[in-house]
Amino acid sequence: MRKLHRATTAGLAALLLLTGQTQAAPTPASDSGDVAARTFLLGCVAYAGDYAKLRDHLRPGQDMYLPELSPTDAVPFLQGREGTVWARPDAGVTLALLKPDETCVVFVRKVSTEALFRRLETGLRSSLSKSFTVRTAGEETKGAMRSRFIDLIPSGSYREDLIKLYTTEPAGMRVVLTTSETANPNLQAIITLGTRSP
């Protein structure tokens, strides 16, 4: 299963590279939804399965450069785990890479949650639609928290290649956008990428 996950995520990275989506991270502070969506797509999605390479691209002078937070400032974003955190304080966007399972998370302080969801969905469709079926997959509400799901399911010849290689149906990936207007006044959205349950 781990090999299948790596192959699927490697496909995500290759497709984003081919579609030209891995250009430099946004520079001037603008719409926090745009900055958050681009940070997620160009970071978490483009480098899924190879976050060591993403860490290199986040260093000063590199195309995805973001300032790294000190260990003390990173604590609220690490959720009690080890990891590294980078931030765009001018846009209220923070990217965290959590260990040991190499989870990539984007936190957004203030954002139009509807616009952010639309940007994520549009970006995923335009970047990955040649090899993945990108579909909204419902939502879940728990108290003040709302989670919306976008599934990335290998399709076409890419799906066929994965089945030939691993002799099993690929599960694909799931993007989760969790939002709340009231749960935390300093945090409105969290975006994650994980394996989709078959």
From TrEMBL:
Residues 1-24 form the signal peptide. It comes from the Bacteria. The keyword Signal applies. The keyword Signal applies. Keywords: Signal. NCBIfam families: lipo_NMCC_0638 (NF047650). This is Uncharacterized protein. It comes from Magnetospirillum molischianum DSM 120. The lineage of its organism: Bacteria, Pseudomonadati, Pseudomonadota, Alphaproteobacteria, Rhodospirillales.
